[in-house]
Structure of Acetate--CoA ligase family protein:
Amino acid sequence: MIEHRICLSRVVNPRSVAVIGASDDVGKFGGRVIHYLIKHGYPGRLLPINPNRATIRGLPAYPGIGTVPEPVDVAILAVPVAHLLRQVEDCAAAGVGACIIITGKLADAGAEGAALQDRVLEVARAAGMRLVGPNCLGIFNMTDAAMLSSSLVLEAERVKPGGIGMVSQSGALMGTLVSVGLHHGAGFSRCISVGNQADLELCDFLDFLIDDPATRVIALYIEGLKDPARFAPLLRRARAAGKPVLCVKAGRSAAGAQAARSHTASLAGSFAAFEAVCREAGAVLCDDPAVMVQAADALDRLPRLPRAGMGLAVIASSGGSTVTTADMLPAHGLRLGEMAEATRAELRRWMPESHVHLPLDTGSFDDGTSEDGLSACMRSFMADPDIGAVVVPMTTQPAMAARAALFPELCRQGGRPVLFVMTAAEVGDAARQALRAADFPFLDRVADSLAVLRALEAESAGRDRAALPPPERPPGAGPAPALPGGALTEAEAKSLAAAYGVPVTRGVLAQDADAAVAAAEAIGFPVVLKGVSRAVVHKSDLGLVKLNLADAAAVRAAFAALPDIPLDGVLVQEMARGEAELILGARHEPGFGPLVLVGTGGVLVEVLRDVQVAPAPLRPADAEAMLRRLALWPVLAGVRGRPALDVAAAVDALVRLSWIAADLGPRLVEMDLNPILLRAVGGGAVAVDARATIHGDDA
Amino acid sequence: MIEHRICLSRVVNPRSVAVIGASDDVGKFGGRVIHYLIKHGYPGRLLPINPNRATIRGLPAYPGIGTVPEPVDVAILAVPVAHLLRQVEDCAAAGVGACIIITGKLADAGAEGAALQDRVLEVARAAGMRLVGPNCLGIFNMTDAAMLSSSLVLEAERVKPGGIGMVSQSGALMGTLVSVGLHHGAGFSRCISVGNQADLELCDFLDFLIDDPATRVIALYIEGLKDPARFAPLLRRARAAGKPVLCVKAGRSAAGAQAARSHTASLAGSFAAFEAVCREAGAVLCDDPAVMVQAADALDRLPRLPRAGMGLAVIASSGGSTVTTADMLPAHGLRLGEMAEATRAELRRWMPESHVHLPLDTGSFDDGTSEDGLSACMRSFMADPDIGAVVVPMTTQPAMAARAALFPELCRQGGRPVLFVMTAAEVGDAARQALRAADFPFLDRVADSLAVLRALEAESAGRDRAALPPPERPPGAGPAPALPGGALTEAEAKSLAAAYGVPVTRGVLAQDADAAVAAAEAIGFPVVLKGVSRAVVHKSDLGLVKLNLADAAAVRAAFAALPDIPLDGVLVQEMARGEAELILGARHEPGFGPLVLVGTGGVLVEVLRDVQVAPAPLRPADAEAMLRRLALWPVLAGVRGRPALDVAAAVDALVRLSWIAADLGPRLVEMDLNPILLRAVGGGAVAVDARATIHGDDA
């Protein structure tokens, strides 16, 4: 156990800061650091270190950190990499609490740099000194006016304090996101660039922000988690604390590119696992960093959505902007609200019946869009049981600023989010200024407002999940039979499934044609023959599967036609039929734990990639929610007069599989049930093929 | 034939403009119109009309249009609707060439307004006077400094002349788009708000812009086409003139909402028809108006993509911004380029081998991102055979403006589009200013740059199509047999398909069980029975289809089990098998002509909505391109070791169906071949079900 000299809150809010390599020249890193500290009003002790100057920016300069006559909470180092180790050693010797190392070309630049980084960490660890970075851009602490950074975003006149706490593995991206936030009038508590995370890492600061009274919303830019197992528990703790967490995770596109042996490994890769863990723990995963910061601002400064799944109202004075906004909703997974009669009645007071619909064009108001009418319509929207939020895509119009200024109070009264979009550019600046003055967020692009709403929707769904009881084991689910390590045969994989109550096709392993015919007669025709070999993963690709054999002669003919490869036997199975094919899968993701997957099965499985992944074990409601998110869902629910399928049976099979994953834990490399045939309501489901791989050791 | 007093170029570029209701008060519409004309330097004769003032803005005012002693090319009317007719009558009497009517509450506000609009049009027509509007925002003619509008976007200091011509059915949206364009440094030729299109309509101005030397790119906001038949020929004329056309079409989301009788009508609705016509004619359809204007600017001021289907380079100094940009590509249908060895060799000169990959982080440069290195990498990208364009998502970094200023010349030299994104907000303004000064476009959001690239990709694909020869009729395609009006029976629909060489299942219509058994024996078991009735569209929903009947007994049993409803007979058919199910469809869209559709067939057809629509007739290459755009394509091409399917047979069937659509023209209400079973290569395709509806008359 390392005894640290300083706690995280002192790293973020130091009473004293030494700037190694301080300079009067703002063209230099050390010059910018001290400039920004002064410019943004750092209230603590500021200690420039420079062996060649007596004063810097009017402050007494010290020749080295060892000569500073007072305690130093934080030293900021933006020194050439060749000098870094010596400087860190000096800081350690001088009793510095923590070093923020802006210097790069350490572990980010190959093996030599990594070795140096290790050495730096060793020195710090030995002394109980904390490190932020290296290769980071430092810390912006807006709450306490401590800008411990050389980032050019600090050229901004003022960095507004507020509720958004950010941790980022990219310093430049963090600077950009703060700049975008400031444009929109967003306020930040602390923004921490963690760089190479030699010592302090993203999860440490996430942990800190959860308890930080100044932070109301947390935004994370993640490239890779140092210790994935810390992440989900922290997300759950943040949710319990009422603090939404948003994140962008780099590497989404690479995830799909890896060739993978099983469907489940390819479809539930590490990005899918990350996504599943975020959903389960109530965190909001965004694609676009710029959307993340705007969504964080909306969560900080606007009311939250009452609950997930509600519709939207779209209202503006331009028919063109309302219609094109409405057209963009489906691509964002959003919909217009179904207005209640009371809402319609209110709208009728202001406009002809023919215009009483969403999206609402206020240009149709009988009185020419009076403030009274606009306010009355907004109020009725925000009392409507199916309208969760209002989007206002304002185009150029008279009195934009005055009109915009109505919305903060309407939003406050209504208690639902109002996404105000100033779609014009500079000509809309007066409206933007009015909203900044009212401390009310605005967006510049309709597409952003919809992406933000999607994030709010995810936050809301995550909140709804927090109240659920823990999953319960269904009767007869387990225990697992004894299993060999390595790839299981189909029969072994099916017996594992059966031990948890997942229905599988009846089958008998036969070693010759006579035994196969006897087995077929016992099972009942038609049957399927499957050549079984531990060496073969995709049987049908090798001609090892013979379907729909109607009589003994057909069984004999099929047996004879099996390809001449070494087989462990021939499985004779009932020929099951169903109305739809699902794939169910399970695997263990290191750091994230057991996962289950469900998707459209059969030949389309890797084409459509219509899958949902979730951490195991599942509640029945979780399993049903996964099925409902599939593109295939309408088929399960009974599309176009076709029978509704036995969703309850699919839910049950998925829940039971999730307990296999939960019980086997890291022993389960992966398991596929593909396809599972689903029949009409009451007809149940049955897995017709199964495969699984088990870790050889019992670890 | 109406004799017009004035040609369109005079409406857009009038020598003299009368402002009805002119005022010194810029709070009034008429005050703003004259203010903006003066402010933006209108060089022609400016004639204020106001009975109560001797001068306005220092110009002599006239009490009425009839008292103006000189010819008036254009009068602008922003008068109360109650006075409109009288003012238009006065203009007609005074010999005015055209009226731009800003006044609203005409056809946009119900039947009474529509009647007044008709009366206004009648007056204008009788006099040969043209109308723009009513309910429009007028015309911005940047090329000739004639701002004939009251739009508040004209508050901008300067409206930059340039190559973008715009026509919009929403005035407010047009103002907003001009504002967005000006922010990005885009220049416009003419922007025309057409309002209710009483007389002059969108296609008139599209026609004008195609011949307009000042216009290089055309952007359209369309709510509904007055005469759809004009549209596609104009798009083709624009392409021939080398002028890309971009459009946003309102009503996309509503299109899918209409309940429809056949799959084809529901899947190939009017929005899909519009989309198909745009693709065929090389126009670019955008979802987001703000993306449209930025894409238009890119087409105006950047080199075009060399050809469709190339990859991208992403390069910036922040690993975070390059990685998140790369992650966003797949969702936009884009991909990174595969760098050629020559490109890799150039990159190796500047950075360690481990960093030689796309996206490229210039933070990894050995020399700290020198301008030389950046320029060399950019040049090698733009010479790479697989890199069509470069995206530069700049975050906060030192010397942003100087760095940004490198790109215009690099882009000019390289001859490929460079999408420069300034991802920071105000702190990036110096970089924006540098690019405006260099007349080079920039974007503010990575998501915008990718949406713009998608539009550039569509423009490029449209250009590639222009060189194709006209479709040729395949041998044996037609003529059509005599057809009754109304819904055809399956047998009639199949004989129509067969007359064009589309393979259909063999079948015999039987009236009793004995005849069915005899037919089955002639066809060969197993067979299918289908109860046939002109009154039934979806046979399987009523239990009228009995599959896989293996012998005579099964045929008799199935015949007896048919539901007791009046039937035209029972079709006995071969039981066809295939590896995949397609739907093929055809219909006639008024104004757009014959269309064909292909998609994933069977039970998933309306769930997945995996369909492609195109105008008929098709070339084989068109048909194959449609198949390649399906989500199902990997199944057709042979996914995961499964056999490649007979794509040539699917192409042939689709081409032949397209000639049915082309030959029947408006007589064909709709035709579905669903499913068509596709077998492995060489196995062909066969339509197992068919339905069609024919217009009763021969019109």
Observations:
- Residues 263 and 405 of chain A are 54 Å apart (CA to CA).
- Chain A has five domains: 1-135, 136-301, 304-465, 506-574, 580-694.
